[in-house]
Design goal:
heterodimer, A: 312 residues, ABC transporter involved in vitamin B12 uptake, BtuC, 2 domains, 2% strand, B: 264 residues, alpha/beta, Rossmann fold, 36% helix, globular
Chain lengths: 312, 264
């Protein structure tokens, strides 16, 4: 096995990790802050990519295309949010329904076919897999996406410190308490889902430019990658500092680590078709560990709780 | 200040588990009233508080707070008028947020929330002052996550939060039931202090007859979803647990069926 091959693949993995990191930050908002596992993202990622590609092909400025992608993502989040809050469908099922619906929307209404290429030679794109090394810094995809990540983290740090952001956090932390403090928890859930999916769509838009095409199945399993990034980041570096901005940075780091590891595994000769299985297994194990840990701690606690009840 | 007019709530209507939790209940509170509520299990005590708070839609009747009919307002909109402390210490605070953030959330109860800072510098120092008055040393732990606090500390914090924005009605739902006796006594003391200082109109549900007699200016007993006993003024001051038990069996025709109330 040639080490140089692995070494050459690393900048690409880093760029991909950063792009998926934006999606993972979106997942963090729903999964960690709102306490909802939002499966919409599998569809939204592709929606973002598709809208961006089609917009650019129709002569849109690349930044306008990114904005349109984010709006499309927010709308997808809105649909999931309304299915959940207005129609009383459990959040996880609401996400699945939107995701399924989005597949048709992406295929027929936006792309018109399963795969739409967009050449970096013909259009002015922001990022591309050709620009991960050997180009000026300002054009370097890793640099450009890193700027995106930093700006997003800064904006989210600010937002979750505002009254509205605090209300959103309270909604996820304790809905009953939030309502008792006059917070419209339904509205906040919808808002959180929209914000999250807008970021996921932005990630999809950058990804489609990066790989030079939008594909109807590009979002398959995205939620698992997002969760993997969140969990890996938390386990590897999350314990260092509880600062919120740092926690978001950890998510991006988790995503980068995920892609670097994937690169190594591929370099070791794993058939790339096994990647999804590998991702699923990794996420399952990482999710199980805290549960097993808590189970070990709960046993003595249960006894003491019972004791209190007997006294009262 | 508070009017409950013929409020009615039926759970599991039309099934074998049908339960008339509130049976055309009427209750009127004057401003500054501190009403303690007792009753056996399933008498409708907590359901009554939840009806005031808007946790569910009523099957009949109306709830009027300070002249405003809130019957159709959702829980979060009524919160403007209501401060609440729950039975479970976990319910009243956000465990993953820190003490000052919880207080800042409570300080904005009933106000629009925009993009201003979630907590300001002046609020921080105000919070510190208020926490000092609790006498629990929480003013030195303002950035600790509330999840790290004990049940008693959390209830004390919830009480403070409920009174930060002066509520029209303060609802205390067996808020000391999950605490050990010593902590429970301290939290009750705090409740009295806060109610008195802010002249709050209060409803306190309790399982403990002694507490019900010792606190407040009025005592109400519920049975089968309506008020069977309403004692205030001098009569309440002279009340004993034995009186209550005999009055209970006289009005309801059965023995008071709560071990917890008898033993306490």
């Amino acid at each position: 096995m040639e080490l140089i091959k692995l070494f050459n693949a690393m900048p690409g993995a880093l760029a991909q990790g950063l792009i998926w990191g934006i999606m993972a930050i979106g997942v963090y908002i729903t999964y960690k802050i709102l306490d909802i596992a939002d499966l919409t993202v599998d569809g939204t990622l592709c929606t973002g990519g598709a809208v961006c590609v089609v917009a650019i092909m129709n002569g849109c400025n690349v930044f306008v295309a990114l904005l349109l992608a984010m709006i499309a993502g927010a709308l997808a989040g809105l649909v999931t949010g309304l299915l959940h809050t207005l129609m009383g469908i459990p959040a996880i099922l609401a996400g699945i329904l939107t995701q399924l619906g989005l597949w048709s929307v992406n295929l027929v209404a936006i792309l018109g076919k399963a795969n739409q290429a967009i050449s970096v030679d013909k259009y002015e794109l922001l990022v591309s897999l050709r620009w991960v090394k050997g180009v000026p810094l300002l054009q370097n995809t890793i640099f450009v996406v890193a700027i995106f990540v930093v700006v997003i983290i800064a904006l989210l740090y600010w937002f979750f410190g505002t009254e509205l952001g605090c209300a959103l956090r309270a909604t996820g932390s304790n809905g009953q308490m939030a309502r008792a403090q006059g917070i419209n928890t339904d509205r906040n859930k919808v808002l959180g889902l929209m914000l999250s999916n807008a970021l996921v769509a932005l990630s999809g838009a950058l990804l489609s430019q990066y790989q030079g095409f939008a594909d109807v199945s590009m979002g398959r399993g995205a939620i698992v990658i997002g969760l993997a990034a969140v969990i890996i980041g938390e386990v590897l570096v999350g314990w260092v500092c509880r600062n919120f901005a740092f926690q978001l940075a950890c998510v991006a780091i988790g995503s980068i680590v995920y892609y670097l590891v994937i690169q190594v595994v591929l370099w070791l000769g794993l058939d790339s078709n096994y990647l999804k299985l590998l991702s699923a297994v990794v996420v399952a194990i990482f999710l199980a560990v805290p549960y097993w840990k808590s189970k070990m701690h709960v046993k003595p606690k249960r006894k003491s709780e019972k004791g209190v009840k007997d006294h009262a | 200040m508070l009017e409950l007019n013929n409020i009615r709530k039926v759970f599991n209507a039309g099934t074998v588990n049908e339960k008339v939790a509130l049976n055309d209940l009427n209750l009127y509170l004057e401003e500054g009233d501190f009403v303690t509520v007792i009753g056996g299990n399933g008498a409708g005590k907590s359901t009554m508080l939840n009806a005031v708070a808007g946790a569910f839609a009523l099957d009949g009747g109306s709830v009027v707070i300070d002249g405003v009919d809130v019957t159709r307002l959702p829980e979060y909109k009524r919160a403007k008028y209501i401060g609440r402390v729950f039975q479970d210490p976990m319910t009243g605070t956000a465990a993953t947020m820190n003490i000052e953030e919880n207080l800042a959330l409570a300080a904005r109860r009933g106000k629009p929330r925009g993009l201003g800072w979630g907590i300001t510098r002046t609020e921080r120092s105000q919070c510190r002052e208020k926490l000092k008055q609790l006498g629990l040393g929480l003013e030195n732990r303002m950035t600790s996550k509330v999840g790290l606090l004990s049940g008693g500390q959390r209830q004390a914090l919830t009480l403070l939060m409920a009174s930060l924005q002066k509520p029209k009605i303060l609802l205390l739902d067996e808020h000391t039931a999950a605490l050990d006796p010593k902590t429970a006594a301290r939290v009750l003391e705090l409740s009295d202090e806060i109610v008195e200082k802010n002249n709050l109109t209060t409803i306190m549900v309790t399982h403990n007859m002694r507490d019900a007699i010792a606190h407040g200016n009025r005592l109400v007993m519920l049975h089968d979803g309506h008020v069977v006993l309403d004692i205030s003024g001098e009569e309440k001051k002279k009340l004993t647990v034995e009186d209550l038990l005999s009055k209970f069996s006289a009005t309801s025709g059965e023995e008071f069926a709560s071990d917890r109330a008898l033993l306490a």
